[in-house]
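Work Package 3 (structural annotation) set out to generate three-dimensional models for the target panel prioritized at the project kickoff. During this period the team completed the workflow that converts sequence records into discrete structure tokens, so that structures can be stored uniformly alongside our sequence database. As a representative example, we reproduce one entry of 135 residues exactly as it appears in the project archive.
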Amino acid sequence: MMRLHRGRLIDHVQLVVADLERSRAFYEAVLGVIGVPIVAGDDFFYADELFVTAGEPRTGRCHLAFQTRDPALVDAFHAAGLAAGGRDNGAPGLRDYHADYYAAFLLDPDGNNIEAVFHGPAAYSAASITIDFPG
């Protein structure tokens, strides 16, 4: 038997696309097959934790956010990324996305915008899950 352990590593992903309507049609088709609805905004759409916008990116075409357990891990993420050759794209601190949104942003070596975020105190239904595959 193979066992996978999954937690909440990925908080959200943002893709910057050239043609929002063409991309929306694509993601509506492929995600519709697996039962994930698309929610459209004026200049974006999202499905679960995937956010899609259009236009010229300031950074790489991908924004990837990792979830952390507390603000100290956001601080440590930022320091470790700078020490490993990342470039600052937003020092650790509170953001106005919602109350208690504490995040830091780095550009990885290819210019992708990588974030660590702590959403504030919360009760989780589970810390993580295990997935068991027979065989």
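Residues 20-33 form the longest helix (14 residues).
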